[in-house]
Amino acid sequence: MSVHPSDNPFTKAMTDKRQALVLFSGGQDSSTCLAWALERYEHVETIGFDYGQRHAVELQCRGLLRDGMKRINPHWSYKLGQDHLVDAKVIGDIGQTAMTSEAAIRIHANGLPNTFVPGRNLLFLTLAAAMAYRRGLQVLVTGVCETDYSGYPDCRDDAMKAQQVALSLGMDRSIVIETPLMWIDKAMTWHMCLALGGEPLVELIRDQSHSCYLGERHIAHAWGQGCGHCPACELRAKGWERFVMQAPISFGKKSPRY
Ligand code: ZN
């Protein structure tokens, strides 16, 4: 008989007593980070940012994902605390990019895609740290990744380390930034998801998380919903394809188990 990690007394004793705040957008990466944090920390809260992005649909997925994770694991249900939604529309007021306007997605001469919103991630982490300070939470968890999005300088490991120091000094309190996905690709992110919550978690994140830059939620693919041709959909499709080739089980169109 297999014992779930949360039921194992040794694993329970290993639970990190710190409390965490997960930057949770409703995408594949931040959903996996939420499950990772729920497995690891004693208490977990989530924060999302409304910055006038054209895929406001991503924010609507957040509630479905939180509810699904509570059903998947009773220990997670006990640990999952408040959700905070913060208005960050000021970022859209400052600069027009493909994420906040209807501009087409393209690459600038400096190699950065116009989906890059300057300073966005730095701002989000600062707002999250302010919320964590007020709530008495010690750890920020974010799904940034160098492997897939190296074009975004404020998602890189060095930027995260520098910001961790800046936030801890500026708030005179230890703020730790954890980045569980920093060095893994999209296929490995699915493997992590499978290890954390089994097939029900993979199916939940596949069906309810949202990655598409165009906010498309009405076209179903094997890897979830999306337009199928924007850079985020292409990345997600390729990651899923590699994952299902390597995974020990097959994911079909069965009825959801979450
Ligand atoms: Zn898309």
Protein topology:
Layout: H1 9-13, E1 16-23, H2 28-40, E2 41-50, H3 57-72, H4 74-79, E3 80-87, H5 90-94, H6 120-135, E4 139-141, H7 146-149, H8 157-171, E5 176-178, H9 186-208, E6 220-221, E7 224-225, H10 231-246
Parallel strand pairs: 1-2, 1-4, 2-3, 4-5
Antiparallel strand pairs: 6-7
Zinc ion is lined by residues 212-214, 216, 226-227, 230, 232-233.
Description of the molecule:
It is a single chain. The chain contains 10 helices and 7 strands. The strands form 2 sheets. The protein has a 5-stranded parallel β-sheet, sandwiched between helices. Strands 6-7 form a two-stranded antiparallel ribbon. The site of zinc ion has 9 residues, from α10.
Q: Give the bound compounds.
A: zinc ion
Distance separating the two termini: 22 Å
Mean pLDDT: 86
Q: Strand arrangement, largest sheet?
A: 3-2-1-4-5
The rough form would be described as globular
Q: What is the percent of helical residues?
A: 40-55%
Q: Which residue ranges are poorly predicted, with pLDDT under 50 across at least 5 consecutive positions? A: none
Strand content: 5-15%
**Rg from alpha-carbon coordinates:** 18 Å
Main beta sheet, described?
5 strands, parallel
Number of helices: 10
Extended strand count: 7
Helices and strands, in order, run as HEHEHHEHHEHHEHEEH
